[in-house]
Amino acid sequence: MKKIAIYGGTFDPIHHGHLIVAREALERLGAEEVIFIPARISPLRRTAPVAGDEIRLLMIQAAIENEPGFTVDDCELRRPSPSYTIDTVEDIRQRKDVALIYCLIGEDNVDKLTKWRRFADLEKIVRFVVLDRSGQQPHHAYPVIRRKIDISATEIRKRVATGRSIRYFVPSTVEEIIRREKLYLEQQK
Predict the structure, then answer these.
(1) Of 6, 53, 168, 187, whose CB is crowded by the most CB atoms within 10 A?
(2) Looking at the domain that runs over 2-180, which CATH code has it been given?
């Protein structure tokens, strides 16, 4: 039985910050696999991603191609909205022979964790690991993987909308998809 980490998010678009912290998690946790799980709509946000489900899935696939230990699972995109982490974890546990599931979350989600559907059940079957890109002192007891990376999907979308380069922000394969599909050309409010 193996250890895996699940990394959920909108990934709109996936960028080098996501990939760097995922690689760090894979290595530091001794996991065999990090599974990227694109969300349709976050239950606590209720705002749809800018890019469609299939395009975001395609960008993740392009970004992690030939990356050992990285996979993608579209289970949340196949379920009706909203999709909850507990459902994803239970689905993955049924399909994979795993001893331990790490649930990678951003620092911005820590305060909301107790509001997650069936949090008490979820906390019993996963180990939460916080991905902190801010470098601030944590105010929680969860293990932290800290990498100071100043890249955000919001910034990338704004750069595209204003005609600025996103080279070095995203893998070249993701940049090609963004250009080809004419994504993020309009400034978001």
Answers:
(1) 6
(2) 3.40.50.620
pLDDT band (50, 70, 90) for residue 176: very high
State how far the Cα of 6 lies from the Cα of 76, in Å rounded to an integer.
12
pLDDT in tens, 26-53: 999 999 999 999 998 877 777 889 999 9
Residues 6+ apart with CB under 8 A from 174: 13, 14, 15, 59, 62, 63
Instruction: Give residue 70's Cα distance to chain centre.
Output: 12
Question: Cβ(132)–Cβ(145) under 8 Å?
Answer: yes
What pTM value is reported for the model? 0.94
Q: Which residues contact 171 (CB under 8 A, 6 or more apart)?
A: 14, 16, 19, 62, 63
102-139, pLDDT tens digit by residue? 999 998 899 999 999 999 999 999 999 999 877 777 78
Question: Which of 40, 47, 38 shows the shortest CA–CA distance to 14?
Answer: 38
Q: What is the DSSP letter of 25?
A: H
Diameter of the chain measured on Cα atoms:
48
Supply the pLDDT for residue 188.
64
Give the CA angle between residues 113, 28, 170 to the nearest 5°: 75
